Amino acid sequence: MAKPTIVRTEVVVVDRHELNPYNDMIFWDKADKEYKVSAKRQWLHEKVVDGVAITLGYAVYMDREYIADILDVASQLPPPVTPQKPADAPKPTAYAEKVPAHKEPAPQELGMWWKELGECIRVGAIDKDFPKMVVKIKSQYYKKLAEVTGITMKEK
Hints:
Blueprint: E1 8-19, E2 25-29, E3 34-37, E4 53-61, E5 64-72, H1 73-76, H2 95-98, H3 107-123, H4 125-129, H5 134-149
Antiparallel strand pairs: 1-2, 1-4, 2-3, 4-5
């Protein structure tokens, strides 16, 4: 008997399985999709184990796909490597030592904060949140706005 030609493979994790009255192995994956291994391929039934990832090899017979082979994914993986601790592991440092020195923010970020400040001034949030500093904040904002745009502002 010729070995069937595998046309596609699929990896699934078996959630549960059972034999139907015709001795076919019916099993479901974690997404609750149902699969069937025919009673004609009983040697594949033992490879269906709950909680194990398997590779299903599909072949085609009379324009219908069927499960022709099952490979255990775990058997294909290399053995686990145990991590070795280096002899001279560096000592953990304090958080303050890890933080990089202050750097100038990007122009986009500055623009975002100036826009946010302008919005807070417009809706009156600055008046509520910083009542003692509102004059200083607004004057700095309008001074910078006039500097950037070239507009002169006069009081009435």
